[in-house]
Design goal:
Elements lengths: L2 H9 L4 E5 L6 E4 L1 H12 L18 E8 L5 E8 L1
Parallel strand pairs: 1-4
Antiparallel strand pairs: 1-2, 3-4
Length: 83
C-alpha cells in the first residue's frame, strides 16, 4: 500500500489503528486524536510499499501497512515496524 492511501486509512476516525512494535510484537492502539502526531513523528515518509526503497526513520524503522475488516465491518489498520 502506498503512503498516501495508508495515511488516509490511518486518519479515519472510524478505523481501528494499531502499531506492532518490532522485536516484541506488542501492539499499541492509537486513538484518533494521537494518529496525526504519530504519523508525523514516526511513519510519514517511511511507509514501505514493497516497490520503492524508503529511508528508515530516526529509530531505524520503516512501516508495512496491513488492512482488513472485522466481522462487524470496521476497518482495522496495522502499522508494523520493520527494521
Amino acid at each position: 500500500m502506498n503512503e498516501r492511501d495508508a495515511r488516509r486509512l490511518v486518519m479515519r476516525a472510524a478505523s481501528a489503528v494499531a502499531v506492532e512494535h518490532s522485536g516484541t510484537h506488542e501492539l499499541t492502539w492509537l486513538a484518533p486524536e494521537h494518529r496525526a502526531s504519530f504519523w508525523e513523528a514516526h511513519a510519514g515518509g517511511h511507509v514501505d510499499d514493497r516497490e520503492d526503497p524508503v529511508p528508515a526513520n530516526e529509530d531505524g524503522f520503516t512501516y508495512h501497512v496491513s488492512t482488513w475488516k472485522n466481522a462487524t465491518g470496521q476497518r482495522l489498520v496495522l502499522l508494523s515496524e520493520m527494521c
